[in-house]
């Protein structure tokens, strides 16, 4: 809505809360806060601009609350506001001060781990790897058990949930920023920035190379315009002093710890702050305290448990390799998996014997435990800053991970361990719950925008699942989609349908997840499932049509 200002309004302005003075300057309503921050509201309702009360970044005009967008300009602390939305409330209630806190916009704390399977978290049932901090968040929020990533490796997954488009809408299946594909459309964080939030990322939110990019401390495939400020967390990774060992392609054990995307375990000397994630947590805590008085969107990206499995030695102690259990090895397991479905990392091609496989699981768990401790520090900072009751907290991962299921390791696969992600959303005032409805990471952008009262752009391909936070039984999706560049997964509540190449020339898999949750029996050739297969194929066609029905085609840059 568009408002204009009547000059007479300046004569009847009243201020409360943080506002020191409110004046009209030309067509701008200017709010001077007690901290000398100059806030300009560019538009005020023509009909009711005779009573203005300021509450931080809200202004009450008569009984209409208008939220203002704050955009920080330079170092002078000048803030420009624009009226974005209005809602009728009782101004007297606000004036009482009791609801001031409740009326302030919710902050967003988005915590994302890298390469984390939910199977490694105790709140999802792991009995060996204990994750008390993530568990505490889960027990105070909604824990989703069927949340799917849209890409099964970093680049496409992160570009998708940050842009709001599926990988096959932007064409991003590699390790690049979505910016060229989306033109001037706002990313998730940028959307909040446009609505006046301070937006910041610490470490990996868009793609970053691990370990290489972390060793250098570079920005990776970032999108600078999404952020008011951004911070990288350089770390030594596999070079960290301590006891290091290469597990992959090292059958005789002679190779030292090496760099790159390979299985290396380091029991490191020193404390948490030696490493990238410790530094990420420290910076995040600092930012929470510094920005507690303004609406913020803070993205905190931890890089563990992505390889290398580096953590201080104390985090490795609870996981003696001999006690690590491996998934059951089933004879002939690969016989009904199409060639393109055999993952790029397997026990066989990594030349990892059972002992090294156990070491891999132990190293992964130590990395998860270390990452969990960093989550705990950030959550404590939120509590200490006194803003836990007005901050939405999200915890997730960019995709899942195999820890030896089917003798597969790592990501990329379209099997359940790789496509399923942990997802916890905690919204102040909402009851804790467990939600088994299908969700996708691409739903975060519209959902969190909606929860914060921001406009939800029509173009977004995800859906607003905020209703699930009130009613965990609510089902809003019939299927979820995940891709890996070679294949596609269509997941319904009951079935997983995988198709290699769009025309299925690379083969298909169909699993009944109720009777075969570990996906040992491909039902594609079973006549009893012919109707189900037909339905899943049809779902696939419909889904891809929906993915390609987007507003990017009109953008010449989307073709890049
Ligand atoms: Ca990743």
Walk me through what this model shows:
One of its GO terms (molecular function) is iduronate-2-sulfatase activity. This protein is of the alpha/beta class. The chain folds into 3 domains: 7-103, no CATH class; 107-482, Alkaline Phosphatase, subunit A; 483-559, 2-Layer Sandwich (Arylsulfatase, C-terminal domain), CATH 3.30.1120. 24% of the residues lie in helices and 23% in strands. It contains 15 helices and 27 strands. The strands form 6 sheets. Strands 10, 11, 12, 13, 16, 18, 21, 22 and 23 form a 9-stranded mixed sheet that branches. A 5-stranded mixed sheet has the order 1-2-3-8-7, with no helix packed on it. Helix 9 (276-290) runs parallel beside helix 11 (354-384). The structure holds calcium ion.
Task: Briefly say what this structure is.
With 560 residues, this protein is α/β, with parallel strands linked by helices. Helices cover 24% and strands 23% of the residues.
